[in-house]
Write a structure and sequence with these properties.
The complex is a heterotrimer of chains A (about 170), B (about 230) and C (about 260). Chain B has about 230 residues and is mainly alpha-helical. Chain B has nine helices and no strands. Classes of the chains: A alpha/beta (about 170), B mainly alpha (about 230), C mainly alpha (about 260). At the B-C interface, helix 2, helix 3, helix 5, helix 7 and helix 8 of B face helix 2, helix 3, helix 5, helix 6 and helix 8 of C.
């Protein structure tokens, strides 16, 4: 399978994705799934500048990502699919039954969200939605960079705000 | 070593600890600078430089992405450089023990940075109403608080590490039983392996990196022989 | 999405006086002063932008001054050396009277790419290159002051240039700053620097190792060979292990062994 990471990250394209995961995993393409950005040229221009020339970036809405998913999987290069929020990933998982793992990489502070990890702040609604994704048989874990500890969804949701732990 | 003697080292550790993230991020906190400066502070810059080079080889691996967790090399290198420069003249075990102390300090200091970031968040929450009103003084006050707290953090880490390790390192050196050159060889072998692995991880996607690295090794080998 | 959010506005009508530019520039060195897990760089961005916002008509008395500070003190992330691009571009948008909704959208889109460009160019290229240069100088026998001068001089030439360029580019391009980020130095730089670093790594690691070991070329050669093999194994199979932690464990065991023997 050439999609090596399905990531929820509100920063979308940034250093942890492009360098942190991109370099060790030899990533050749990134699929950015966001309904708003998919139809906005100047935002796409900005995100494109965050990706090295040798890496392809594909902008698509959820509908497009679902219909083109088989193409991402059969691509010879390795890829990352990134969504800005849990709701978008939930819709993607609903439409693509073969997604087995989802990575929570960065959901940052906003009013109404509680700190769960130093890089994951969740509202009650978002916690419910993550649980629903997991109930579909998808393995949901949190991990910001490859050498950090992988935190299971049980630890993420059932505990009090999670204390800092290292790899 | 009493606290007054430690004061210059504590201040150096505080300032270089702050350089890692808060101010001015000019990389004076990199081990090769920080440990050498610490060695120079107690009159033995060459010893500090050796410790700095070893820690720099290890530090190559950790890319300091803003939000991820990483060791804090600034204060740790000051501790390592000072301890090794103080033990100069008793080579067997001094390098290994000082390096171990520096690595433990880097680990604790990295943890203290996480705590500082949480403290900054708490402070930010207490002035959130003012921030939401766009108060310039609240914004500047929060910056000043964070900078001061980081300076204090670096000073505390350096002080505690020096107080703990100053007696431990000579005690280890006193009981050291392995040959001095073999001890150095083991240290160098470990850090050079980590450095080579780090270079591979960072640059393996660069076109021709493997050949360039091998070509570099050939040049390096010639220079080692000629030096 | 409203039509006003589909394209950034045109040319600026405001210039940045030299004194304001300098105030903002020097504040940028402390942009991460209150870094925290909730707003990350946000407060620092507002802190750096504040002198520029005084240029609004009626200065601090303009309601937009406080509104803008509140807006920019919220969550934001970027590479610290490229934060100037954001400060410049967002300050210009505020001074040009761009709608808050568009500014919000632009802020959201700008942070990630600025982090990515900076992480690739600085943390994953320029910093390792300068470290390796200093290690090579150390290995070749340079005295401490020269090693430090080589590292700090080289590294900070790039560092200061990037900070100054970023603020200038951000303010002059405003919301059209993507074109500045397309600069070939930023796009191709990491590859070029990476090639130089790979070559330099091959030179620097054996030289530095040899100087630490001291006299004894055969021992140095053996150690370097073992280290390179260890490096390959570590790179191949140690993807999730941090080298410094591994070193800590190995050295801890070694100290224990040597002391109790």
């Amino acid at each position: 399978m050439s999609v090596t990471l399905y990531r929820i990250d509100d920063r979308l394209i940034h250093g942890q994705v492009v360098v942190g995961w991109g370099q060790p995993l030899n990533i050749g393409f990134i699929v950015l799934v966001d309904d708003d950005i998919a139809c906005c040229d100047w935002e796409q221009d900005l995100y494109r500048m965050g990706v090295p020339p040798e890496m392809e970036i594909v902008f698509t809405d959820v509908k497009g990502a679902i219909s083109n998913h088989a193409g991402y999987v059969s691509d010879k290069r390795r890829g990352i699919v990134v969504t800005p929020d849990i709701a978008t990933m939930h819709r993607l998982v609903d439409g693509v039954k073969t997604i087995g793992d989802v990575n929570v990489g960065g959901i940052h502070y906003k009013a109404g969200r509680t700190p769960r990890l130093r890089y994951a702040f969740l509202s009650p609604e978002e916690e419910r939605e993550l649980s629903v994704i997991a109930e579909h048989g998808v393995r949901v874990t949190a991990q910001d960079v490859p050498n950090a500890r992988q935190v299971s969804i049980a630890e993420l949701l059932l505990s009090k705000p999670v204390e800092e732990k290292s790899a | 070593m009493i606290l007054v003697d430690l004061l210059p080292i504590i201040l150096l550790g505080a300032f270089l600890g702050m350089d890692v993230v808060s101010f001015p991020q000019a990389m004076i906190s990199r081990p090769i600078v920080a440990a050498t400066a610490a060695g120079a502070f107690i009159g033995n810059a060459p010893a500090g430089l050796i410790m700095g080079a070893i820690l720099e080889l290890l530090a190559l691996e950790m890319l300091p992405f803003g939000a991820s967790r990483y060791p804090e090399w600034g204060s740790a290198s000051v501790v390592g450089g000072t301890l090794y420069a103080e033990s100069w003249g008793s080579p067997a075990g001094a390098l290994t023990a000082s390096l171990l102390a520096a690595l433990l300090t880097a680990m604790v200091s990295g943890w203290s940075m996480v705590k500082l970031r949480r403290l900054n968040a708490l402070r930010s929450a207490t002035v959130r109403e003012e921030l939401d009103r766009g108060s310039a003084s609240a914004i500047a006050g929060l910056q000043l608080f964070g900078l001061t707290a980081d300076l204090v953090r670096g000073a505390l880490v350096t002080m505690v590490a020096m107080l703990v390790f100053s007696p431990i390192v000579p005690a280890i050196v006193g009981r050291w039983s392995v040959d001095a050159r073999l001890s150095r060889a083991i240290v160098v072998g470990v850090v050079a392996a980590v450095a080579a692995g780090a270079i591979w991880k960072i640059f393996h996607s660069v076109s021709g990196a493997r050949l360039l690295f091998i070509a570099g090794l050939a040049i390096g080998a010639v220079l080692v022989v000629l030096r | 999405m409203t039509s006003s959010l589909t394209s950034p506005p045109g040319e600026s009508r405001v210039s940045l006086p030299a004194t304001t530019w300098l105030r903002v520039f020097f504040r940028l060195f402390a942009v991460q002063g209150s870094w925290n897990y909730e707003t990350l760089l946000g407060n620092g961005i507002a802190f750096c932008m504040e002198p520029a916002l005084r240029l609004l008509p009626s200065g601090r008395d303009n309601p937009r001054y406080a509104e803008a500070l509140a807006r920019h003190a919220r969550y934001f992330n970027a590479h610290p050396y490229f934060a100037g691009v954001a400060v410049g571009a967002l300050a210009r948008a505020e001074l040009d009277g761009v709608s808050p909704a568009l500014i919000e959208r632009f802020r959201t889109a700008l942070g990630g790419p600025l982090g990515s460009v900076g992480d690739r160019l600085v943390w994953a290229s320029w910093l390792p290159l300068c470290s390796l240069l200093a290690l090579a100088a150390f290995g070749y026998g340079a005295r401490p002051s020269l090693v430090i001068a080589i590292f700090l001089g080289t590294y900070n030439a790039g560092h200061l240039f990037l900070r100054a360029w970023g603020l200038r580019a951000g303010f002059s391009k405003g919301l059209r700053v993507a074109s500045a980020l397309g600069n070939p130095i930023l796009r191709k730089g990491p590859q070029v620097v990476g090639s130089a670093a790979a070559l330099l790594a091959g030179i620097a690691i054996p030289l530095a190792a040899s100087r630490v070991i001291g006299n004894g070329r055969f021992l140095a050669a053996e150690i370097i060979l073992v280290a390179m093999l260890g490096g390959v194994v570590f790179a191949r199979f140690g993807g999730r292990v941090e080298g410094w932690r591994l070193s800590l464990v190995i050295l801890g065991l070694f100290v224990f062994f040597s002391v109790i023997r």
